[in-house]
Design goal:
27% strand; two-stranded antiparallel ribbon; single chain; globular
Length: 99
């Protein structure tokens, strides 16, 4: 899996749901290697994900084969709006845009 960052914490990707063939977008909160893995890699990792637009109680650990690494999105930062919120998403900045 060339080109994948070392840490995926905060990155977003489609993740296959357990009971059907849906691939909703989820944020990777944390990753870990299962016990007994000889050569750690993204392919053997487990990922704790938060499904975007869903309640946190649905967050779960998923195996790497359920994560679509070809559609990874980098973490984003929100700039604070000193004059109040305007109700739009113009304040979202990609980490790739920062100096």
């Amino acid at each position: 899996m060339a080109g994948i960052p070392t840490s995926l914490d905060g990155w977003r990707a489609p993740v296959k749901t357990e009971h059907n063939d849906d691939w909703p977008m989820a944020e990777i909160i944390f990753s870990k290697q299962p016990p007994g893995v000889a050569v750690p890699s993204h392919a053997t990792a487990l990922y704790y994900v938060h499904w975007l637009d869903f309640n946190k109680r649905l967050d779960e650990w998923v195996a790497a084969e359920r994560v679509d690494f070809t559609k990874l999105q980098p973490p984003t930062l929100c700039k604070s709006n000193k004059k109040g919120s305007s109700g739009n998403n113009n304040n979202v900045v990609s980490l790739l845009d920062l100096p």
